[in-house]
Amino acid sequence: MVERVLVPMDDSELSERALRYALDVHRDADVTVLHVVGEPSRMMGAATGIALADDSEERVRELSEDVFERAEAIAAERGVAIETMTEVGSPARRIVERADEFDVVVIGTHGGSLADRLLVGNVAKSVFQHSPVPVTVVR
């Protein structure tokens, strides 16, 4: 029986579909939404602001706020509560590291911009290949 479900989310419709699927299929499970903010790097992007922020923890929370608001609205439509957590780093790596705390990972097939997918690779594929628990990939 599935008791704990991890749903990694970014700002994509596919990650929202994954959350809806998880909530519909695993009705009695505790669902946790994980948003991973990319590591600060020399490349352009929102994560660069983390390294420059006076309060990096607060900046990470700000970057996750929209994703969590949408996730909580989806859960509220179904009359359930979810937990949320934020990590900083490589999305696939952070998801896999957290996965062993859950019974299953439910993830959208891909998300982010085309540039993100080309530079970072397919997060869902990497999670599927390396997760210590079963992974459901939602299209």
TrEMBL record:
<dbReference type="InterPro" id="IPR014729">
    <property type="entry name" value="Rossmann-like_a/b/a_fold"/>
</dbReference>
<dbReference type="Pfam" id="PF00582">
    <property type="entry name" value="Usp"/>
</dbReference>
<feature type="domain" description="UspA">
    <location>
        <begin position="1"/>
        <end position="139"/>
    </location>
</feature>
<protein>
    <submittedName>
        <fullName>Universal stress protein</fullName>
    </submittedName>
</protein>
<comment type="similarity">
    <text>Belongs to the universal stress protein A family.</text>
</comment>
<dbReference type="InterPro" id="IPR006015">
    <property type="entry name" value="Universal_stress_UspA"/>
</dbReference>
<dbReference type="InterPro" id="IPR006016">
    <property type="entry name" value="UspA"/>
</dbReference>
